[in-house]
Specification:
This protein is of the alpha+beta class. Strands 1-2-5 form a three-stranded antiparallel beta sheet. The longest helix is centred in the N-terminal third of the chain and has 20 residues. The protein is elongated, with a radius of gyration of 18 Å. This is DNA-binding protein HU-alpha.
Length: 90
């Protein structure tokens, strides 16, 4: 499901317009991004938690040449599904 399809589904369920539902989704994603940039977790009880994860520096291989390369440390956003979401999937 893509963003327009999600907005349409939310609009159908809540009675708001698709445009307004799209704005709500955009506001949600903006706030999750801002919280991640500040290093904060975003927890939605029953759904899951978005959190900042750190990756250590490591060595790897260039797949084209086979040469060793250093991969620098980085940060990424992870998601851990909550119990209700896990139960819904199974």
């Amino acid at each position: 499901m893509r963003k327009p399809e999600l907005a349409a589904a939310i609009a159908d369920r809540t009675g708001m317009t698709r445009e307004k539902a799209g704005e709500v989704i955009a506001a949600f994603t903006d706030q999750v991004s801002a919280a991640a940039a500040r290093g904060e977790d975003v927890s939605l009880i029953g759904f899951g938690t978005f959190n900042l994860r750190s990756r250590e520096a490591r060595s790897g291989r260039n797949p084209q040449t086979g040469a060793s390369i250093q991969i620098p440390a980085s940060k990424t956003v992870g998601f851990k599904a909550g119990k209700a979401l896990k139960d819904a999937v199974q």
